[in-house]
Design goal:
The chain has 425 residues and is of the alpha/beta class. The longest helix is centred in the last third of the chain and has 26 residues. The protein is globular, with a radius of gyration of 20 Å. The protein starts with 14 loop residues before the first helix and ends with a helix. The structure holds nicotinamide-adenine-dinucleotide (NAD).
Length: 425
């Protein structure tokens, strides 16, 4: 059976709806491999809880704006729900549902005891002052308060949010509880119970996955990175530190290219100062989306969903794609890439470093204890490399792509949890 969910009007096929269609397609393929029965497939295709909230925000000039916010808990069969909080103008309930579903498979794949969730607010954070952002965050948290908590659902940073946002989430929740609850959120500042190694964890995981997939020496391997935010900038940095030659990066403002390799630390400083990579003087300017067609060994999409589609996939020359972003490759593009022999290390594996160290942060919070950066990195490496080996072996054994194998493992573990728990009542 193919998985059906209620659809929106055809005229309203948003990027979010496309992301959800991709996620459902991937689930469908895994369910076929696992021979899941129709009832279980439908349960896994539909979120456990979805909350839509209206968030009123008082602007500095006195106006009142109202924006839509969402929190979706896709699955909690293996533990509390876990997933990022996104502030982006085009976020919608479909996108948040897709991202929550990917979180469920990701946590199961890397073997951490969480279900999957995601939150979003349809707003452009760049258009708000810090005080407006704080008011928006606190009001949104207040609206979703019944859903979240250290044993229920634990948000973390995603696109458009950062450790300051997480500090406001922690404070709003704690004020309501009447005591400090650091474990309600991860990706916090160190002073509030954040973990060493969390800020760079997703990017470190991307580096670990890329080096595992490359096999041999990274020395001189050429890399292009789409997205120069929290994940992309540090992924570029860590790959460069490992000996790769990062020749191009892009962000929403543009793209830059240097055939001899970019000085990533210098470019990060420029982007932080200027608000983007555009105009960086020590490299050539490149049309933003031409980055995908460069003759490089490795491509790291680290921006948003739907970056690699049937339109640009035939022109991709990289032999390895390591997905820092969630859902950057559409199923149609996946088929084109598989046919051309391009290896794709899928999002639920490649970017799992973030949720792994979020889990470590939460464990430290629950024990009121903290680990050294060495201990955190060792655990991260261990879980990433273990998951990579499992996915690689299953893919080879069954003739699957790495994405298909990763989904078979992740979905299979969640399906097992449902079977063992049984159905209440
Ligand atoms: P971010 O907001 O810090 O950065 C996003 C970056 O993408 C920015 O540099 C932005 O300019 C760029 N961008 C947006 N549209 C673009 C376009 N069309 N072309 C090129 N660049 C574009 O977000 P982030 O936290 O780095 O997240 C990036 C991706 O990684 C998302 O898919 C997110 O879900 C995923 N992810 C993030 C984490 C995390 O810990 N932050 C963990 C796992 C996965």
């Amino acid at each position: 059976m193919s998985i059906m969910v209620p659809s929106t009007t055809p005229a309203l096929i948003t990027p979010g709806r496309q992301a959800l269609d991709s996620a459902l397609h991937q689930l469908d393929q895994a369910a076929e491999q696992l021979r899941l029965d129709d009832g279980l497939r439908t349960m896994l295709a539909t979120p456990r809880r979805s909350l839509t909230v209206s968030v009123p925000v008082r602007r500095e000039d006195g106006r009142l704006d109202v924006v839509q916010g969402y929190r979706v808990q896709h699955n909690v069969s293996r533990g509390p729900a876990k997933g990022g909080l996104r502030f982006h103008p085009s976020t919608d309930i479909h996108e948040v549902t897709a991202l929550a579903m990917w979180m469920t498979w990701k946590c199961a794949l890397v073997g951490i005891p969480y279900g999957g969730a995601k939150g979003g607010v349809a707003v452009d954070p760049a258009g708000l002052t810090t005080r407006e952002l704080e008011r928006l965050t606190r009001r949104y948290v207040n609206e979703i308060l019944p859903l979240i908590g250290p044993e229920k659902d634990i948000p973390a940073p995603d696109v458009g949010t950062d450790e300051q946002t997480m500090a406001w989430v922690m404070d709003t929740y704690s004020v309501n509880a009447g005591y400090s609850v650091p474990g309600v959120v991860t990706g916090k500042p160190m002073t509030l119970g954040g973990s060493l190694g969390r800020a760079g964890a997703t990017s470190r995981g991307v580096q670990i996955a890329a080096l595992a997939a490359l096999g041999g020496s990274p020395e001189g391997v050429t890399v292009a990175v789409q997205g120069f935010g929290k994940v992309g900038a540090l992924a570029a940095q860590y790959l460069s530190d490992a000996g790769c030659k990062v020749v191009a990066v892009s962000d929403v403002t543009g793209a830059v290219y240097a055939s001899s390799g970019l000085d990533i630390a210098r470019l990060r400083a420029w982007a932080a100062e200027e608000g983007g990579v555009r105009g960086y003087r020590h490299a050539d300017a490149l049309a933003r989306d031409d980055l995908f067609e460069l003759d490089v060994d490795v491509l790291v999409p680290a921006a948003l969903e739907g970056a690699i589609t049937e339109a640009n996939a035939p022109r991709i020359r990289a032999r390895l794609i390591v997905e820092g972003a969630n859902g950057p490759t559409t199923p149609q593009a996946d088929e084109i890439l598989a046919a051309s022999g391009t290896t794709v290390v899928p999002d639920i594996l490649a970017n799992a470093g973030g949720v792994i160290v979020s889990y470590l942060e939460w464990v430290q919070n629950m024990q009121a204890y903290s680990w050294s950066s060495g201990e955190v990195e060792l655990k991260l490496r261990d879980l990433m490399q273990g998951a990579y080996s499992e996915v690689k072996s299953l893919a080879a054994e069954r003739g699957l792509t790495l994405r298909q194998a990763a989904h078979v493992i992740g979905v299979g573990r969640v399906a097992d949890a449902h079977r063992m728990r049984g159905l209440y009542p």
